[in-house]
Amino acid sequence: xxxxxxxxxxxxxxxxxxxxxxxxxxxxxxxxxxxxxxxxxxxxxxxxxxxxxxxxxxxxxxxxxxxxxxxxxxxxxxxxxxxxxxxxxxxxxxxxxxxxxxxxxxxxxxxxxxxxxxxxxxxxxxxxxxxxxxxxxxxxxxxxxxxxxxxxxxxxxxxxxxxxxxxxxxxxxxxxxxxxxxxxxxxxxxxxxxxxxxxxxxxxxxxxxxxxxxxxxxxxxx
Length: 222
What we know:
Elements: H1 15-19, E1 38-39, E2 58-59, E3 66-67, H2 72-88, E4 105-106, E5 119-121, H3 137-149, E6 154-156, E7 167-170, H4 177-188, H5 203-220
Antiparallel strand pairs: 1-4, 2-3, 5-7, 6-7
Helix pairs in contact: 2-3, 2-4, 3-5
């Protein structure tokens, strides 16, 4: 179903609102990234998914963007996240969004996930590896809400040691029970939220997403 009648949320962010955000936001600046540029030779990407030849392009519902990425549960979760990003954070540019690819030269290990079709970069070349401070405080809060709703099956590369603020990836292995549960919820259950149908900036949701963010960061630091 194409949600062509929906409009993207417009955010009006004051410095007070940003400072008062309940969530942990990305820093405004960062040191030049320490990359581990290399050619990825494994048969699976960094998240454990099998590397494959890029398949057919798929239209992201409600957008003008067509990009190749994995099918099934993982694909449904990526679709959910990117579609909400388009309506609630920043309108997707068809010239920038990238998905499944065959380029094995990577500057960070997690970038190999594009080889398995389990990652989508919504900003592409407009946000070079290591760049930060792209989003406002409220926009980051919406992204955190999206991640919270994906329950740990999706990761945002802004949280990586070498960040990429437009890069979203599946963060569980193939066959994950959590992946199946979350995908089913997106398709049929309580997480079946149409873009624009929820207020990610509502205080209660912000608190839930903030707690989830702290948990994820704690686990990554171990």
